[in-house]
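Here we describe the complex-level prediction in full. Unlike the single-chain runs in Section 2.1, the two entities below were treated as one system.
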Amino acid sequence: MSDSLWQRCLRHLESELNAQDLNTWIRPLQPVEDGNLLRLFAPNHFVLDKINELFIARIIIIIKQLDDNTSVTVQVGSSRPTPAPSPTTSNAVAQSNATSAFFNRENNKTGKGFRSGLQPSFTFDNYVEGKSNQLARAASAQVAENPGTAYNPLFLYGGVGLGKTHLMHAVGNMMFERMDNAKIVYLHSERFVADMVKALQHNTINEFKRYYRSVDALLIDDIQFFAKKDRSQEEFFHTFNSLIEGHQQVIMTCDRYPKKVDGLEERLKSRFGWGLTVAIEPPELETRVAILMSKAAQIDIDIPNDVAFLIAKRFQSNIREMEGALRRVVANSRFTGLPITLEFAKDALRDLLALQDRLVTIDNIQKTVAEYYKIRVADLLSKRRSRSVARPRQLAMALAKDMTNHSLPEIGDAFGGRDHTTVLHACRKIAELRAEDNVINEDYSNLLRTLQT
Amino acid sequence: MFGSGVERPGKIVVSQSKWGAMTKQLALDLHLRDEFNFNSYLSASNEQLVAALSTLHADYPLYFWGETGSGKTHLLHAVLNQQVSQSKAVALISLDHFDRPDSKICEGLEQCDLVCIDAIDAVDDDMVWQQALFHLLNRAKENNTYMVISGHGSPQHLDVFADLQSRLAASLIFEQNTLNDDEKTIALQQRSQMRGLSLSDEVANYLVSRAKRDTHSLFGLLDKLDKHSMVKQRGLTVPLVKEVLFGFA
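The structure predicted for the assembly as a whole is:
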């Protein structure tokens, strides 16, 4: 196949421009040859402006030299075809979210239902349930069975990589299968904001409103990114109200409890709590192992139990981290053709495990705990015994015992020369408090996770 | 008009010459960029990384990290060049570059077939960029766009907000090993050959055993030697190296 006009032009530019300009501005352009017109699509206005400012004159000259008849235009857009609308069959492939539901709405005017942005692979069947997420799962299943009436809105919150998005997609997919002509839209909050801004620019804000208010379920991910975006909050507020009044289902996820999101309007925070707000906690070891097994099964990989335990034990902070580790083990096995055994996995994960080992030190724990409680490390080491200092100190000691291999005398020593019985007392006290005081328990879990990442 | 620069392997040199007024020397240097491919990369200790880079997956990003001079730039250009040779639209954003673009550049970038992000750790104090990258990663995944990201440390060690960090942690992750001394000797000779210079084993060994040994410094030194030998009209010998290194033979 002979090189296209644009490729030949690129080669000229490659010999004239530095790599920085080439890779930042020129190579992202997508060409479409349309008779005597070469249309170049820039990914955004920022690139377009730069091309017009600095490069277009030269591009036109080169193209003219290569083919006198061809003229050049540059515009924002893409040559990649717009994905086809989802068929309504149950095994439908998710419609790409590259162009969002709203800007893709012509595709959805089939009179039938559609699902936009949903990943068909996220289902209840492959969602691993454990103590940490059973409430959230049960609530989600309720919503999927009785949309608009069970809990509306459903608000799922929890740390990163704990399965909020999976659950949300599972509800959407199940609704889609159970309801005739269901219109289900999933989108990330950033996309809602971007679409709204675009609709304002294109004078299509009324259609934007109508569109989002007409769906059977609106699933919005990572609502915390609405923070401080007043106009988007305003728009979402009205969309939200209209949906709730119409008994259309709203599901949201967030990285924290709604009241704790800074920069979110009070009226939104309170409305988010009208339905059911449910937390997803970090999964315990057994659940993590089961999740890994399920992830491996999804890519047709069989991993032995001890390997799953190794990964689940060593990568605790979130599920994505475990996925990364699993990916590396699988890649190494495919590359070498060797089976996945415990020794093989340890070797494959050497880079990642080594880092973790050297990470957790008593120093590090003291620094992290001090930062968390907004006190000084010196306070932790001091003789002061006020509650505001003593509790964090005990927590830090307990963490040091749980996370390092230091002996109790060594830990005592590192905390301003305290006796090992003091450390022992601290560990017992924290274990006791964690069982009866939720705040302490949450602090401990948060610190543990921070230290492990 | 704008200032045009040339990239020498390992560092960016901005020349003062204007477009259209290229010197012969610049044309020679520019040719070198084309040599950034997987074949010219000494991969003995990084075979799996190279294999992964040449068979990318759109489901998850590929993240690799290594210390300065481990050859991150080489590999990023190699993966870009490979995609360009297949008529793909690609972008490389170098975040530690003195001229880091505005984060608005990320909008719609998932329309490319491959997006490379170099030196992601450079935005650890820049929340706007971090958020832009987070959203770009999400859109790239939805849009089946390849993402390759490099940094100086593992995702677990990045000082970025949790959502971004966890997405990076879910990548296929590799540590890029630095070349050992033998490989550095070969790399120097290979690099010299690209410039039409002949570097004997003796001189190459001398360089690796006497000069600063990270590849950035070694390749930089090669630049100096190249110029010096041209000015002096002499071949690359140990005495010439001594002149450049210590100011006397």
